[in-house]
């Protein structure tokens, strides 16, 4: 009742103030990118409309709240198994989505909840997948690391294995001549994998429209980048491929860099490598408290000085593009969406045993699948 009263009161305050009173758009100086083998890079100024600002705020705040709810459900043992949370890195997912088209393609590693949402999957389907329920985006059989959507290829559990797949998707774009690009993401922990450099080589040889992005959140599991990599300039790792180093905590920096990179690829110039400097607030996964290899003070300092949501909020408020009341109302709406989604994820039924082997192959007639021994027969339906 109290929350409802606050919401109604907030709505009255916002509606009493005409939307015409707000600044419709503003330009902001952004951090200049470091360049590798490029004579010029993205603009160091970004234009933001009020509508874009509200959309970015809503999306990033939804991802933040969704991940905090997943943390809570995991601690209640409702979510089990692997669970890698994305809070702190929201500007990367939002900035990338704002800089490409819905028809473009994206593939990432196992920290995939944020991208699943920005690619268009509802919160309830994501949380239901985490709890292993029938209404999950992968029908409850994929879990945290294996979620998919149109033009989104997961969620991949094997470190670095998505990078050759992303190059393959880019090859398909080139082959079909559809002027689309593939955004291929990996973490600093995967950056020393041999398959990444094999992918770089083929992408450069064939001039594939692939944006290779290293999300550098400073730690591969519990190992700092300085201890794992002889060179921490990940944007230079493509050597013969041009690269950009971007402030991954600023949604506008990410958006402008991705637009630049997408234009570069669409012009037929081949691949580009990008490093997004970012930070995760949680540990590597829910089994990692995240404070044995860094201090609580370090995490708090990033939250205080460099939080991606707070940075966008401050820009909008200081330029009269929104009001505290309006943003509070959005926060209340998001909390309700998250709570409703959590209830759905808890109450939705688990998939039945009959569905265990379904969708092994696409467009195949029903087939028999051997169980744990030759006498157990299961059925697979495409």
TrEMBL record:
One of its GO terms (biological process) is pyruvate decarboxylation to acetyl-CoA. The keyword Metal-binding applies. Its cofactor is thiamine diphosphate; Mg(2+). Residues 59-352 form the Dehydrogenase E1 component domain. Keywords: Carbohydrate metabolism, Glucose metabolism, Magnesium, Metal-binding, Mitochondrion, Oxidoreductase, Phosphoprotein, Pyruvate, Thiamine pyrophosphate, Transit peptide. GO terms for cellular component: mitochondrial matrix. It catalyses: N(6)-[(R)-lipoyl]-L-lysyl-[protein] + pyruvate + H(+) = N(6)-[(R)-S(8)-acetyldihydrolipoyl]-L-lysyl-[protein] + CO2. It holds the Pfam family E1_dh. Its main location: mitochondrion. It is an enzyme of class 1 (oxidoreductase). It is found in: Mitochondrion matrix. Its EC number is 1.2.4.1. GO terms for molecular function: metal ion binding; pyruvate dehydrogenase (acetyl-transferring) activity. The pyruvate dehydrogenase complex catalyzes the overall conversion of pyruvate to acetyl-CoA and CO(2), and thereby links the glycolytic pathway to the tricarboxylic cycle. This is Pyruvate dehydrogenase E1 component subunit alpha. It comes from Esox lucius.
């Amino acid at each position: 009742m109290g929350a409802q009263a606050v919401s109604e009161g907030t709505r009255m305050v916002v509606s009493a103030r005409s939307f015409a009173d707000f600044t419709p758009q503003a330009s902001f100086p952004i951090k200049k990118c470091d360049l590798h083998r490029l004579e010029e890079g993205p603009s160091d100024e970004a234009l933001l409309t009020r509508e874009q600002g509200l959309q970015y705020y809503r999306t990033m705040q939804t991802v933040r709240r969704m991940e905090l709810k997943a943390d809570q459900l995991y601690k209640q043992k409702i979510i089990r198994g692997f669970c890698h949370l994305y809070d702190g890195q929201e500007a990367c997912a939002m900035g990338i989505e704002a800089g490409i088209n819905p028809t473009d393609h994206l593939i990432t590693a196992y920290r995939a909840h944020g991208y699943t949402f920005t690619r268009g999957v509802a919160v309830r389907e994501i949380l239901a997948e985490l709890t292993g329920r029938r209404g999950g985006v992968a029908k409850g059989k994929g879990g945290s690391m294996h979620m998919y959507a149109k033009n989104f290829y997961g969620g991949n559990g094997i470190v670095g294995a998505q990078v050759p797949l992303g190059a393959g998707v880019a090859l398909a774009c080139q082959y079909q001549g559809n002027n689309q690009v593939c955004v291929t993401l990996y973490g600093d922990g995967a950056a020393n994998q041999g398959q990444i450099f094999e992918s770089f080589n083929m992408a450069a040889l064939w001039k594939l429209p692939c944006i290779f992005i290293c999300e550098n959140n400073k730690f591969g599991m519990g190992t700092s980048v300085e201890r794992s990599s002889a060179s921490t300039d990940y944007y230079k790792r493509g050597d013969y491929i041009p690269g950009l180093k971007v402030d991954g905590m600023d949604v506008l920096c990410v958006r402008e860099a991705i637009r630049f990179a997408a234009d570069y690829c669409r012009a037929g110039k081949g691949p580009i490598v990008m490093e997004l400097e970012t930070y995760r607030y949680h540990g590597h996964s829910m089994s990692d408290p995240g404070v044995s290899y860094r201090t609580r003070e370090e995490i708090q300092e990033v939250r205080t000085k460099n939080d991606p949501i707070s940075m966008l909020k401050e820009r909008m408020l200081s330029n009269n593009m929104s009001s505290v009341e309006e943003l509070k109302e959005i926060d209340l709406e998001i909390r309700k969406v998250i709570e409703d989604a959590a209830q759905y994820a808890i109450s939705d039924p688990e998939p039945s045993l009959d569905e265990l082997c379904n969708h092994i192959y696409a467009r195949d007639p029903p087939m028999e699948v051997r169980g744990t021994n030759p006498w157990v027969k299961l059925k697979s339906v495409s």
